[in-house]
Write a structure and sequence with these properties.
Ribokinase-like, 12 helices, 11-stranded mixed sheet, alpha/beta, 4-stranded mixed sheet, disordered N terminus, 18 strands, UDP-N-acetylmuramoyl-L-alanine:D-glutamate ligase, kinase activity, Ribo/fructo_kinase, kinase
């Protein structure tokens, strides 16, 4: 039995999150002294976002070093909290001031109830989340390696899986009502496609998290307005020889796509934005050479996130084709090793911030450093949600004002 839960080229730097020392005031602490939450402008007028995907419980264990086979080791830290790409991204969006709604499925078990409670506490609306009387809620074991600063995830899917019949047409229409953007993490493929098709019919923009090749992902990408990809996805999906040429290939293969971003961890991100303004461009630029030129202009003395952009041009990729657009190279914050705790959920935090940026109509030059700033904040605590900043974080002030 199922039921719904009722309740011109430019470097653009921005302030970064730092951990204050006892003796030297940091940029963030100086901002905090001058600013209160009352001085923040209100969130965007249209701030309802809908997410569809998997939510989980994460069992996180930090270890001094990843164990060898047959080893028995102790953890240096432990935490149990909500997880899952869509759950993390929507939690981030809620803390930034959006009103997220969630379509997903859990079981009526201890883990499912804890997922619901945590989402509600963070301001995510679970009214469209389906609860099964039987089965199990999804959960993930996460091993955080303090030595290599990496994490290993072992995921157990929920059962029974979500199917389109779990969501009534009335609930679907209600979930999409007044939504500014709809976000999919690439899971729950059959249900996600039904939701995406209805969103497209209503002309609601669609953002896809292209983490890896999955069943049904191609169908979602064909409807997408925006895509945010992991480092390996663009080349794996297009078989292009480089990331820039893969992004050109994606825009050529997906004519609805307005922009595609690939996140590169400590190496920042790259974004290709389609020229939709009808600007006539004659200059042709090799996209790989252009990215190299942008990166050469990066100022390595700047530790906070920045963005370098190209003018609108005809960007060519050898053997693939050309697209009219702009290329952006975003940098990541240089987090001191002593402050880097856990990268779990950094990509989800980036997406949560991107959802906010879309609702706020941020230009790419502001969106990319903002998303990088939010992701960096999340890397300073154990788990995918512990370090997610709230709207009142003083280091976000310049983006939200």
């Amino acid at each position: 039995m199922l039921r719904l839960f009722t309740i011109p080229n430019v470097i653009a730097p921005f302030p970064s999150k730092t951990i204050p020392s006892s003796s030297t005031p940091t940029h963030c602490s100086l901002i905090r002294a001058k600013m209160s939450s009352d001085s923040l402008p209100p969130p965007p007028d249209n701030r309802i976002v809908l997410g569809c995907g998997t939510v989980t419980v994460d069992f996180l264990a930090a270890v001094a070093a990843y164990p060898n086979p047959d080893d028995k080791i102790g953890s240096t830290g432990f935490k149990v909290q909500g997880g899952g790409n869509v759950g993390n991204a929507l939690t981030c969006a809620a803390r930034l001031g959006l009103n997220p709604r969630l379509i997903s499925k859990v079981a009526d078990d201890t883990q499912g109830r804890s997922i619901l409670e945590e989402l509600k506490a963070d301001g995510v609306d679970p009214s469209f989340l389906v609860v099964s009387d039987e089965g199990n809620s999804p959960f993930t074991y996460v091993i955080v390696d303090n030595q290599t600063k990496t994490r290993t995830c072992i995921h157990t899917p929920g059962y029974p899986p979500m199917i389109p019949d779990d969501l009534s047409q009335e609930s679907l229409v209600s979930a999409l009502d007044d939504a500014r953007v709809v976000y999919f993490d690439g899971r729950l493929p059959e249900t996600a496609l039904v939701v995406a098709q209805e969103a497209a019919r209503k002309n609601i923009p669609i953002l896809i998290d292209a983490e890896r090749k999955r069943e049904g992902l191609d169908n979602l990408l064909e409807l997408a307005d925006y895509a945010i990809c992991s480092a390996k996805f663009p080349q794996a999906w297009t078989e292009a020889p480089s990331i820039p040429s893969a992004l050109v290939s994606m825009l050529l293969r997906l004519p609805n796509l307005k922009f595609v971003i690939v996140t590169l961890g400590k190496d920042g991100c790259v974004m290709l934005e389609r020229n939709v303004n009808g600007d006539v461009v004659s200059e042709e630029i090799d996209v790989d050479s252009l990215l190299e030129t942008l990166r050469q202009r990066k100022d390595d003395s700047i530790g906070i996130p920045t963005c370098l952009s190209s003018p609108v041009a005809k960007l060519t990729a050898q053997g693939i084709g050309a697209v009219s657009g702009r290329l952006f190279a975003g940098t990541a914050e240089k987090i001191p090793p002593s402050e880097l705790v856990d990268t779990t959920g950094a990509g989800d935090a980036f997406i949560g911030a991107a959802l906010y940026a879309i609702c706020a109509d941020m230009p790419p030059e502001k969106m990319l450093p903002f998303a990088a700033q939010v992701a960096a904040a999340n890397c300073r605590a154990l788990g995918a949600r512990t370090g997610l900043p709230h709207r009142t974080d003083p280091c976000l002030a310049s983006f939200l004002s």
